[in-house]
Amino acid sequence: MATITTHTHPLLTVSFSAKTDFITLADHCERLAETLTETHDPALKLALCDRLAACLALLRPTLSDPIPPHLTERLTVNTLPAASPCAEHDSELLCDYSFALAQLMVGYVLPQGISHPLTVLLGELVRSFVAGLKAPRWVRTADGVTFIDEVTE
């Protein structure tokens, strides 16, 4: 009788749901994308891609929601950042691109010559998307906490 090997990776067992906050979901997406670009095992790539698509699908509807008060401190800084990824990228569009690419990679057998560049592209899209989501939104000033976009130097 043949032995069937199964691949268990810790990221495949991390639980998340619609109640998971957007920063935690973004962290999961980032770790999944990073691991996806580093693995050479086709079965694990497929499982990671599927998991990434599921996480992105949960994250997408939350992008226009107000930021929960318990996360504002995490997105507040004491000094203005050099550049704001939030202003440079449309998070909804990057999420849609990432989701579409992950779905494509799960649904089709891609030739090796195409699979690797698409995996790298997916990783870059997710990193850019997550950087924008986790970027500071507020800065502490002498007048109190202010939206970064409202502060001019």
CATH architecture annotation name:
Up-down Bundle
> What share of the residues lie within helices?
40-55%
* Overall pLDDT confidence: 87
Structural shape: elongated
CATH-defined superfamily? nmb1532 protein domain like
DSSP strand tally:
3
What is the string of SSEs from the N terminus onward? HHHEHHHEE
What secondary-structure arrangement, pairings included, does this model have?
Layout: H1 22-38, H2 42-59, H3 69-72, E1 76-77, H4 85-88, H5 91-107, H6 112-133, E2 138-141, E3 144-147
Parallel strand pairs: 1-2
Antiparallel strand pairs: 2-3
Helix pairs in contact: 1-2, 1-6, 2-5, 5-6
Task: Please tell me about this protein's structure.
With 153 residues, this protein is mainly alpha-helical. It has one domain: nmb1532 protein domain like (Four Helix Bundle (Hemerythrin (Met), subunit A)), CATH 1.20.120.520. Helices cover 54% and strands 7% of the residues. The chain is built from six helices and three strands, in the order H-H-H-E-H-H-H-E-E. The protein has a three-stranded mixed sheet, with no helix packed on it. Strand 2 and strand 3 form a beta hairpin. Helix 2 runs antiparallel to helix 5. The radius of gyration is 18 Å and the shape is elongated. The protein starts with 21 loop residues before the first helix and ends in a 6-residue tail after the last strand. The N terminus is likely disordered.
